[in-house]
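If you are new to this repository, start here. Below is one unmodified record pulled from the training split, so you can see the exact layout before writing a loader.
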Amino acid sequence: MSDAPTPAGRRSGLFIGRWFGIKFYLDASWFLIAAIVTHQLAFEAFPQELPGRSQAVWLALGGTAALLFFLSILLHELGHSLVSQRCGIRVPRITLLFIGGLAEIEREPDDAKTELKIALGGPAVSVALAALFALADFGLGALGFPGLAVLCGWLAQTNLMLVVFNMIPGYPLDGGRVLRALIWAKTGRLRRATYISSRIGIGFSWLLIVGGVWLLLGLQAWNGLVFVLMGFFLKSAAESGYANAVQRETLAGVRVRDLMTANPAVIPDTLPLSLAVDDFFLAGHYVAYPVCTADGDFRGLLRLDFLKEIPREKWPYVSAGDAVAEKSAEALRIGVNESAARAMRLLLAPELTRLAVIDDGKLVGIVTRHDILTYIEIHTELEP
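And here is the target side for that same chain:
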């Protein structure tokens, strides 16, 4: 349903499998919608459609419907992701939420045509599933299996409703991404296209929130709660989508060398931690310092949280180089000529606020999350 550039730090989830090189995770919020679907089908819908059956039968059909609904969502997201990977954009992970799926993509599409293809991949799968379940409904009914026919009929309707809902032209829904792609293709302005589609998405999210509150006041607690949660989720995603578009446009063509602080303070790799703390951390005002050899080779970033992992009584006997030796220096560095956009993606990790800037193995500067955000703020406020 929606996507986001892959962050260095991800939300948690239950790992459920890996298909086509994509890791699938189940968010805890999905169990809420599974319980609601099972309850409403087993105690309301199926008793009306299949009178005379036992409660156990209705519960079994309700639980099966919830699982197949989950499978439908998974296949919908897989449709998006396979098209994305076919277009050269890797999808490392998909998290299934109560509202649908969140695909974490390696990067945003480079053009409107690719965006349109990816946006239509999921709805195409849902249309195919709706047709398949409708045929199964007809066939099973003709063969004398009314329970299974009702189940398939519900799944056909649900997949069709999923298509209709997702094709509402408000970002981050699929319809919003289609609208964004069409405006992008027409105007050549991704930021403008995202602004229009995200405004529609925010408007729709408020309709869901207001509708959910109305249902809550009408004593339809579960439905109202789902609508409110969906509304706030979509509102947040729409706002985030526009912020990402602003960031992408602002950082286009900007390199790390343009934003870095050159010649930063450096801790020698042979310096004991006790002196590093006194001479750098307590004397300065930074939470991390690069550690280098006498020749300027980068060894790693000595961070405040790394120091906390080492007992204080050992600080005089552990060098800064040894303290960072077990940490992955690759995850803390970036090339001087790499894009600022890539640096920002790496700095999305909550625990990562700065990167060492490297040129031919040598430290040449430091770039921080604050540096990039300040650049974006200045250019967003002052550029026409």
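Two things worth knowing about this chain: Residues 1-166 form one domain. The longest strand covers residues 362-368.
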